[in-house]
């Protein structure tokens, strides 16, 4: 079996913020090293001000490192094609409140230049997956925070990203929604998606993450897989079927004889409150009890393919960073459909030349005026 590819790699990564006089004000991230491999679910932990958000913003290309090296899919985070392959759910869900859930996903799909057919099918699949199919025509501004988080997750997946960054994904969700969100994360990871999860709810991190990075004061203070970090070597736990009092007394006698002091305890295993809650809910579901709340669909959207990460890495490795300039030029080219709506060559000649983004804005205004005149 081939070794998993590295999706994110940081070496000596540092971010310093300066005041107006260019004096160092805060060292938010202080020379950290880490790597994240394909298919891993990584928990990024730490108290407020520890550097988590700054690290995420650098991975997204929203902030430039002060020093050190940061690669995402083998390229600098600001590389345009790299950004196309990242999905991001911020801590606060920023959506246009007058758009419906369906229109919101159409909007984000168009930003990734998906075809109309792709947008249509992906929107339907995602709305079903996050349990918002019945609310597809409702304006987002009417949604509760939990419902907005579901749409936020859907928009983060519309481009079928190889790297998914989730900041407090269960914020505002009820216990059922939290469990469903964790099930989705586990399923996406099983399909080869790489996921970075930042959360203050440690129980959520414990349930889904393979490894954790614990930050404090801009540094990584601890890292490793959860099983190793949480294992208590100094104690032994024995689990069995319920024992009769006589058998239990004999077992305790044998254990105490081997210990220097009487440190053994006997109790019954307990389930977590979440497990108990879900058990009650599942029993109600089997009785077909009705609920007006949103529930996640039973299946992951089919377009979230398992082999996309391998293909993305192959394409990005074959695409030089210089092509980013070509992408920017393409973005400011005339809108072909609108140009074709203009009937004469003389009208087309009236349009300004396009060389910069400002020229594009001027051209859009000219197009709008011409089309309005035709109407």
Write the layout of secondary structure elements.
Elements: E1 6-18, E2 24-37, E3 41-45, H1 52-60, E4 67-72, H2 80-84, E5 86-89, H3 101-111, H4 116-129, H5 145-157, E6 163-167, H6 175-190, E7 194-198, H7 202-208, E8 211-216, E9 219-225, H8 226-230, H9 245-258, H10 273-286, H11 308-318, H12 323-331, H13 336-341, H14 345-349, H15 357-374
Parallel strand pairs: 3-7, 3-8, 5-6, 6-7
Antiparallel strand pairs: 1-2, 1-4, 8-9
List SSEs in N-to-C order.
EEEHEHEHHHEHEHEEHHHHHHHH
- Which architecture name of the largest domain does CATH use? 3-Layer(aba) Sandwich
CATH superfamily of the largest domain: P-loop containing nucleotide triphosphate hydrolases
Overall 3D shape: globular
CATH fold descriptor of the largest domain = Rossmann fold
Show unreliable segments: 321-334
Output the CATH class name of the largest domain. Alpha Beta
What does this molecule look like?
The chain is of the alpha/beta class and 375 residues long. The chain folds into two domains: 6-231 and 287-314, P-loop containing nucleotide triphosphate hydrolases (Rossmann fold, 3-Layer(aba) Sandwich); 332-374, no CATH class. The chain is 42% helix and 17% strand. The protein has helices at residues 52-60, 80-84, 101-111, 116-129, 145-157, 175-190, 202-208, 226-230, 245-258, 273-286, 308-318, 323-331, 336-341, 345-349, 357-374; strands spanning 6-18, 24-37, 41-45, 67-72, 86-89, 163-167, 194-198, 211-216, 219-225. The strands form two sheets. It has a six-stranded mixed beta sheet with strand order 5-6-7-3-8-9, with helices on both faces. A three-stranded antiparallel beta sheet has the order 2-1-4, covered by helices on one side. Helix 6 links the parallel strand 6 and strand 7 (194-198). Helix 3 (101-111) packs across helix 4 (116-129) and helix 4 (116-129) crosses helix 5. The radius of gyration is 26 Å and the shape is globular. The N and C termini lie far apart (63 Å).
């Amino acid at each position: 079996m081939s070794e998993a590819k590295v999706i994110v790699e940081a070496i000596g990564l540092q971010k310093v913020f300066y005041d107006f006089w260019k004096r160092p004000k805060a060292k938010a991230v202080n020379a950290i090293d880490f790597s994240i491999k394909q298919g891993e679910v990584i928990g990024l932990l730490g108290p407020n001000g520890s550097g988590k958000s700054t690290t995420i913003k650098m991975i997204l290309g929203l902030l430039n490192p002060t020093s050190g090296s940061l690669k995402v899919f083998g390229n600098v985070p600001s590389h345009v094609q790299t950004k196309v392959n990242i999905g991001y759910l911020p801590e606060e869900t920023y959506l246009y409140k007058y758009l419906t859930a369906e229109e919101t996903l159409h909007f984000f799909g168009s930003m990734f230049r998906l075809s109309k057919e792709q947008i249509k099918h992906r929107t339907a699949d995602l709305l079903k997956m996050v349990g918002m199919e019945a609310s597809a025509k409702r304006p987002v501004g009417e949604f509760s925070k939990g419902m907005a988080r579901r749409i936020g997750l859907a928009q983060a997946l519309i481009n079928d990203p190889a790297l998914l960054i989730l900041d407090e994904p269960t914020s505002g969700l009820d216990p059922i929604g939290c469990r469903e969100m964790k099930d989705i994360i586990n399923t996406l990871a099983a399909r080869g998606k790489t996921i970075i999860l930042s959360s203050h709810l440690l129980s959520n991190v414990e349930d889904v993450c393979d490894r954790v990075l614990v930050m404090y004061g801009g540094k990584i203070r601890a890292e490793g897989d959860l099983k190793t970090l949480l294992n208590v070597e100094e104690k032994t736990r024995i689990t069995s079927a319920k024992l009769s009092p006589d058998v239990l007394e004999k077992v305790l006698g044998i254990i105490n004889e081997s210990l220097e002091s009487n440190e053994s305890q006997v109790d019954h295993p307990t389930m977590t409150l979440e497990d108990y809650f879900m058990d009650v809910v599942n029993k109600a579901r089997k009785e077909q009890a009705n609920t007006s709340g949103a529930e996640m669909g039973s299946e992951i959207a089919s377009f979230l393919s398992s082999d996309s990460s391998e293909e993305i890495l192959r394409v990005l490795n074959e695409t030089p960073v210089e092509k980013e300039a070509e992408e920017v030029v393409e973005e400011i080219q005339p809108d072909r459909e609108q140009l074709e709506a203009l009937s004469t060559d003389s009208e087309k000649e009236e349009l300004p030349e396009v060389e910069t983004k400002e020229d594009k804005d001027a051209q859009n205004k000219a197009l709008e005026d011409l089309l309005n005149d035709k109407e």
